[in-house]
Amino acid sequence: MEKRKTFVKDVDRTLYDMKDTGADSYRVSKGLTKDIVAEISAMKDEPSWMLELRLDSLKTYHSLSMPEWGPSLHELDMDNLITYVRPNTSLKENWDEVPGDIKSTFERLGIPQAEREALAGVGAQYDSEVVYHHIKEEMIRQGVVYTDMEAAVKEYEPMIREYFMKLLPAKTHKFLALHGAVWSGGSFVYVPQGVDVKIPLQSYFRFNAPGAGQFEHTLIIVDKGAKLHFIEGCSAPKYNTVNLHAGAVELYVREGASLRYSTIENWSKNMMNLNSKMALVEKNANMEWVSGTFGSHITMLYPASVLNGEGAKTEFTGVSFAAEGQNLDTGTKVVHAAPHTSSIINSRSISKGGGVAVYRSAVSVLPQAHHVKSAVSCESLMLDSVSRSDTLPVMDIRNDEVDIGHEAKIGRISEEAIFYLMTRGLDEIEAKAMIVRGFVEPITKELPLEYAVEMNNLISMELEGSIG
Amino acid sequence: MKNVFKGINEIPVKTWSWLSVNDTELKGEFPSWAAYKENPLTGSVPEGVEILVMEPLQTYFEKYKLEPRAKKAFQTYMQENRNSGYVIRITKGQTIETPIFLSFKLDESSPVLVDNVFILAEENSRATVIIRYSPAGSLDLSHSGLTQVYAQNGAELNLIKVQMLADQDRHVDHVAGAAEAKAKVKVVLAELGAKQSITNCNIDLRGENSEARIDSIYLGDKERMLDINYRIAHLGKNTVSEIHSRGVLADRSEKVFRGTIDFVSGASGSRGKEEEYAVLFSPFVKNVSAPLLLCGEDDVEGAHAASTGKLDESKLFYLMTRGFSETDAKKIILEASFNPVLQKITDESLKEQIFSYIKERLSYV
Question: For B265-292, what is each residue's pLDDT tens digit?
C-alpha cells in the first residue's frame, strides 16, 4: 500500500503578489550597452571614478562566460532586460511623503509598523531606487551612518571609493560584473568604534517592474568593537517575464566587532536571484549570517566569510524551501585565512512538488591558518519523489592543525518521532507540525520574533498521513 | 592520445571551478603500447569458476552494459591498448571459498599494463576476487585498468583491489559494478602507492534489495597525488549502500576525495551512508573532500560524515603512558584506524604484506 503523505502547502504569496501599475517615472531601454551604463551614471550625477568602474565592469561582463555549474540560466535574456527603473518619487525621510501606492505596498508588507516597533532605522528600495531612508536620532548622535548608496557615493566618497567592490570585484563572476556596470540603490552603513546598535537596522527591497533587474549594493563597515544587526527583506509580485536580482553585499567587520546579517528572501517565482555576499572578518570579530530563501525561480546564493584575523569567527544559518518551479542553489563559503579561526555552518532545506534544493559549500583552510575549527551540519527534508535535494559540500584543507567536521542527512521524518510525540499526549497533526517546525527551528530561533512568526506562517501545512 | 588522460575522474555534479574538484588529469604522458608478458593468475582455478582470456571480454561488456564513469575517449583507449584481459565467471549457485587471485606485476619487461577484467557472479553464487598491482625494479611503471563486476540475482561478490606501485609510477583505475535483486557487491580498495593515483569506483544498485559497499584506505606521503571518486547509485527499491574511507596524509602529499551516494527517483525504502576520515601529519598536505549526497526520492535515509584532523592526542598520550614511544604510539593508532578495512581482506598473506608495507611507509611519518 502506498504511504499517505502529508501535504505541505506552498508559501502563501498573496501578500507579495500585489502589483502597482505605473509607479515608475523613468526606465532605461532594454539590454546592456555602454550608452545605457553611461546614462545610469549620468542620471545619478556620479563622480568619474564610479563611471569608470561601471564601464570596466561592463567590459569584464562581456569577457566572462556563464557559470558551468549550478542551475541552468538559459531563460535569462540580457538583451531584453531593463537594468534601471526609477520609481516616481525622490528619496523621503518620512513615510507620509512617500507616494500613496508605493507607501501602501510597504504598509501591506508591514515595514513602517516594524520600524515604529522594533527597528533602529529603515531603508526601503522600490525597483532601482531607494524611496525611503530613516534612522533614529539617537543613532545619529552616536555617529551611526545609515544612508542610501547614491548619497553615500557623494557624502562619504573617500570611504566608498576605498571599499566599493573591493571584496567582490567585478572579475569574480559574470553577474558581479553586471552588477558593477548597472548597480543602483542599496544601503551604506557605518557603525563607529565601540558603538553597540542594540536594535536592528533594516533595508527592504521591493521589485515592481516586470522584465527588469534589481542591482542594489549594500556596504557595511562595523568598526572596532562595534555591534550591529542588519536585516534585509526582499519580495516582488509574480510576472510572466524573467526578472533578475543581482545585488552585492560587502561587509567589513573590524577587530572585535560583531555583525549579524539576516535575510528573508521571498522573491516571486519568475525571479532569477543571483546575489553575491561577502564579509571580511578581522581579528576576534564575529560574523553571523542568517538566511531564509523561500521565493524566486532560481537562486544562486552563497554568502562568504573571509576570516582574516586571528580568532575571527563566523556562523552561517540557512533554510530554504523549494516548491514547484523553483531551483534554490544555496549554501556558503568560508575561507580560514588566519590562525585560531572557527566556523559553524548549519543548513536546512525542504523540497516539494518538483522543487530542487541544493546545498553547496566550500570550507577552505589556508596553510597559515593553524588551529582552525569548523563544523558543518546540513539536513534535507524530501516531501515527495518528484523533487530533488542535493548536498555538495567541499572542504579544502592545507594544514594539519585543524579540526574539521561535516555531517549531512537526507530523508523524511521518522514515524517513530511522530509516535513518540503522540505517546506524550499530542495528536497526530500537532506532532507532525511540531516536527516540521522543529526541523527549521535552528533557523527561526536566530530570527527576530516578528520574522520567526512570519516564517512559521509561511510553512503552513495541511496534514494528512505521514510526513514525506 | 594527448587528451585521453584529461578529464578522467569527473564529479557527478559540478561545483565551483576554483575548487579544482570537478575533474582531474594525469600528469605526463602514458607510454605507448607494449606487450604485458606476465601471467597474473596465481594458484589453480577452483571448480565452479571459468576464466577466459582476452577475446570474450567484448561480448561480456556488450551484454551487461555496465557504465564506467570514464569518458568515451578513455574507454576507447583502454579497449585499443588492452594488453591483459580476463573474464571470470562464477557459475550459478556456487560458493567459492578460496579467493581468486590476479597478481599483476609490473617490471622492466612489462612496464605498461592496460588490463580489463570482467567478473560475472551468476545467480546465487558467492566468491572473492583479489587483484593486486605491484612493482619490481625502479623503472617508471604505468598502469591503467578497468574492472567490471556484475552480480546477478542473489549473488555475492567481493572484489579486493590493492595498489602497491612505487613512488614514480602512475595508476589510473576504474571499477564499474552492478547488482541485480538481492545481490551484494562489496569492494575493498587499498590505494597505497604510485606517484599519481587516479581511481574511480561506480556501482549501480539495479535490483530490489541489493547492497553495495566500498571500503577504502589510502596512504599519502612524499609528493604522492591521490585522486579518488566513488559513487553508489540507488536505482532499485530497498537498496542499501555504504562508502567508508580512511586515509593518512603526510609530507607534501595531495588528496582529492569525492564520494557520492545517489538516490534516484523510485528507489524507495533505500538507505545509504558515507564516511570519510582523514588524518593529517604535515602542515604541507593538501586535503580536499567532497562527500556528495544526491537525492530524487523522499522515502530514503541518507547520511554522510567527513572529518579531518590530527591524531587524537588523548589516545596518543594514553599509549605513551603505557610505555610506547611517540612514533610507535602513532603507528598503533593508525594501524587501528585502517584495521576495519584491512580485516575485510580475507587472504592472510596479502593482509600481512599490506600491514608490513604500511608499517614501513609509516616510518617516514
Answer: 999 999 999 999 999 988 999 999 999 9
Q: What is the pLDDT of residues A100-148, one digit of tens each?
A: 777 777 776 666 777 666 677 777 777 777 777 788 888 889 999 999 9
Neighbours of B173 (CB within 10 A): 22
Q: Which residue of B has its CA nearest to A332?
A: B16
* Straight-line distance from the first to the last Cα atom of chain B, in angstroms, rounded to the nearest whole number: 38
- Give the single-character DSSP code of A199: S
Structural domain contains residue B358: no
> Cβ separation of B299 and A388 shorter than 8 Å?
no
Provide the residue ranges of all domains of chain A, joining segments of one domain with +.
Answer: 25-412, 413-468
* ipTM value for the complex: 0.92
Considering only CB atoms, which chain A residues are within 8 Å of B256?
none
B114 part of a folded domain: yes
Whether B343 is in a domain gets the answer: no
Whole-number pLDDT of residue A301? 96
**Residue A386 to residue B268, Cβ atoms within 8 A:** no
Residues of B in contact with A384 (CB under 8 A): 298
Total domains in chain B come to: 1
- What is the helix (H) or strand (E) element at residue A108, kind and residue range? helix A100-108
Choose among A64, A11, A80, A14: nearest CA to A242. Answer: A80
